[in-house]
From TrEMBL:
Annotated GO MF terms: methyltransferase activity
Protein name per the record: Class I SAM-dependent methyltransferase
Domain Methyltransferase: 49-139
UniProt keywords, alphabetically: Methyltransferase, Transferase
Gene3D superfamilies, per the entry: Vaccinia Virus protein VP39
Pfam families in UniProt: Methyltransf_25
InterPro entries cross-referenced by the UniProt entry: Methyltransf_25, SAM-dependent_MTases_sf
The species this protein was found in: Legionella pneumophila subsp. pneumophila
Length: 203
C-alpha cells in the first residue's frame, strides 16, 4: 500500500508530490463557467471570494481575479500556494488545512471546488460550521461532492487520492441547519466533467 493511501486525512500532502502532474492535467477551459457565473451574478461587484482548496489558482481563482474580485485562497499544499503567489501576487494566499481556518472575516462567496470531497465524512460535517461563520448574509457557497454516500480512492498522477461523500439528504440537512438555502444541486453534470455540484445562499 502506498504512503498516500495511508494518508487519508492529509490529502494535500499527496498534492505536494504530484503538483506538476496536477497543474498540467487540470483543464483550464472553465467547464465550470455556468456555476461561476451564477456566483458572480449573486454577489456584489469586486467583492470577496474565499477559495478553499484553491490548488494552483487556475482556472477558478483566476476567473474571479480577472473579473475584479478579491480572492483569498487556502490550501494545505505549500507548493500549490507558492505557485499561486507567483501567479497572482496581489491576492491573499494561505497555507492551511481548510478544517483549521478561523479567519475572523466573512466573505461574499466561498468555494470548495474539487477539494471538499477529499475530506472524510466527519470532517465534511464539521466544515459547515466554518462555511456558516465565514459567509456573509446573502453570500454564496459552492462545492462539489460525490453523487452518493461513500468513500473511494482514485489514481492521480500515480498516487492514490481519497474521496468521500455524504448522502444528498444529509447535505441538504447540513445546509439548512447552517442557514443556507439550496440554489442548485446537479448530479453528474455532463457539461462539467460529471461533477456533482451544490450552490447555496446564506439566508
Amino acid at each position: 500500500m502506498s504512503m498516500s493511501k495511508l494518508n487519508k486525512t492529509r490529502v494535500y500532502e499527496v498534492y505536494d508530490e504530484i503538483i506538476n502532474w496536477f497543474d498540467d492535467a487540470r483543464t483550464k477551459n472553465l467547464m465550470e463557467s455556468e456555476y461561476l457565473n451564477l456566483i458572480v451574478n449573486a454577489i456584489p461587484p469586486k467583492s470577496s471570494i474565499l477559495d478553499l482548496g484553491c490548488g494552483t489558482g487556475e482556472p477558478i481563482a483566476q476567473f474571479f481575479i480577472e473579473k475584479g474580485f478579491k480572492v483569498t485562497g487556502v490550501d494545505g499544499s505549500q507548493k500549490m500556494i507558492e505557485l499561486c503567489r507567483k501567479r497572482f501576487p496581489d491576492e491573499r494566499w494561505i497555507v492551511s488545512d481548510m478544517r483549521d481556518i478561523n479567519l475572523q472575516q466573512q466573505f461574499d462567496a466561498i468555494l470548495a471546488w474539487h477539494s471538499f470531497f477529499h475530506l472524510d465524512h466527519d470532517s465534511q460535517r464539521n466544515m459547515f460550521k466554518i462555511f456558516e461563520s465565514h459567509t456573509k448574509p446573502g453570500g454564496v457557497l459552492a462545492f462539489t461532492s460525490g453523487e452518493e454516500e461513500g468513500e473511494v480512492w482514485s489514481d492521480n498522477g500515480g498516487q492514490q487520492l481519497y474521496h468521500a461523500s455524504l448522502s444528498t439528504k444529509e447535505y441538504e440537512s447540513l445546509l439548512k441547519n447552517s442557514s443556507f438555502k439550496v440554489l442548485v444541486h446537479k448530479v453528474c453534470d455532463p457539461e462539467c466533467g460529471e461533477a456533482t455540484v451544490w450552490v447555496a445562499q446564506k439566508i
